[in-house]
Amino acid sequence: MANLTGLAAVGNPNPNKSFEVVQPPSDSISSLCFSPKGNYLVATSWDNQVRCWEIMKSGATFGSMPKASTSHEQPVLCSTWKDDGTTVFSGGCDKQVKMWPLMAGGQAVTVAMHDAPVKEVAWIPQMNVLVTGSWDKTLKYWDTRQPNPVHTQQLPDRCYALTVNHPLMVVGTADRNLIVFNLQNPQAEFKRITSPLKYQTRCVAAFPDQQGFLVGSIEGRVGVHHLDDSQQSKNFTFKCHREGNEIYSVNALNFHPVHHTFATSGSDGAFNFWDKDSKQRLKAMSRCTQPIPCSSFNNDGSLFAYAVSYDWSKGAENHNPATAKNYIFLHVPQDTEVKGKPRIGTGGRK
């Protein structure tokens, strides 16, 4: 650990020359999400805060301006926007989900409750419902105008990850369960799969065409999984976020909204861009001095936001909030980094 600490102290926190977001959170950053309607970025943090910045472009450079913030009683773990870009939902260790009418300048109100921390939230515009996943081993659907959930779905274990691309929803839980839902029949499991990865699930991402999903784990590996039995031959896993014998967690998976390639962000402090169809890595970025716990593309894919902060993978004893600085950076993806490439032969390169 001494080496790592030294590296963090003297290394360059921004080796990719990204634009730095001003006034970042004062503790580890747990989620990032862009407004679906514009360049407003929300971050949640272990400092109990939910913050929003307006991201502005001036020529070839980007700047940021803090817009508003709201708070929970305990660390905040997840966030999502309503599809109209007016409202933010956030959930966390206070077992609550808050609805924050950010663009109207309103106060956050509690709209959902669980019996344990809330790990994931997603808004489903086609159903006008909020879905929340918790460590209490339930998934709940909410009409935010009503105090009680519309439906409570029991999960086999604690919810660790969630992705929605209607009608597809995939929930990753402890013990490597992946539960697939068809949201046209949201009260029944469509399929339950054991993760193709041998270790704990950290993140999932539905394919843009809803035909399958990605899953990332703590062992520096990603699985590409198709739902249709006739497509099983297209399933594969690949290694990433590794250096020599060091293996790092894959913390985030983000599909590009236009090109449908994807980014992985890891505890090694790197983010990479990939094309699942040609099985190629499009671009490997330089490692930052701390892990990347979360990341997000904006609505048109012209910006990629990523956090650089402690990710708790080495426990609370190795975290010193007084000395660890937290960053949010904005990377401008180049076409060569995010545009898919034609397949090479049959196997492609990894």
Question: How would you explain this protein's 3D organization?
Answer:
The chain has 350 residues and is mainly beta. The chain has a domain at 155-239: Thrombin, subunit H. It is 4% helix and 47% strand. The chain has helices at residues 2-10, 335-338, and strands at residues 19-20, 29-34, 40-45, 49-58, 61-71, 76-81, 88-92, 96-100, 109-113, 118-124, 129-134, 138-142, 151-154, 159-165, 168-173, 177-182, 189-194, 201-206, 212-217, 221-226, 236-239, 242-243, 246-247, 250-255, 262-266, 271-275, 280-284, 295-297, 304-308, 327-331. A 4-stranded antiparallel beta sheet has the order 1-30-29-28, with no helix packed on it. Strands 2-3-4-5 form a 4-stranded antiparallel beta sheet, with no helix packed on it. The chain is globular and about 50 Å long. The protein starts with a helix and ends in a 12-residue tail after the last helix.
Keywords:
350 residues; mainly beta; Thrombin, subunit H; 4-stranded antiparallel beta sheet; 47% strand; globular; disordered C terminus; WD repeat; repeat; WD40_rpt
List the helices and strands and how they pair.
Layout: H1 2-10, E1 19-20, E2 29-34, E3 40-45, E4 49-58, E5 61-71, E6 76-81, E7 88-92, E8 96-100, E9 109-113, E10 118-124, E11 129-134, E12 138-142, E13 151-154, E14 159-165, E15 168-173, E16 177-182, E17 189-194, E18 201-206, E19 212-217, E20 221-226, E21 236-239, E22 242-243, E23 246-247, E24 250-255, E25 262-266, E26 271-275, E27 280-284, E28 295-297, E29 304-308, E30 327-331, H2 335-338
Antiparallel strand pairs: 1-30, 2-3, 3-4, 4-5, 6-7, 7-8, 8-9, 10-11, 11-12, 12-13, 14-15, 15-16, 16-17, 18-19, 19-20, 20-21, 22-23, 24-25, 25-26, 26-27, 28-29, 29-30
Pfam family, one: WD40
Keywords: Repeat, WD repeat
WD repeats: 22-55, 69-110, 111-152, 250-284
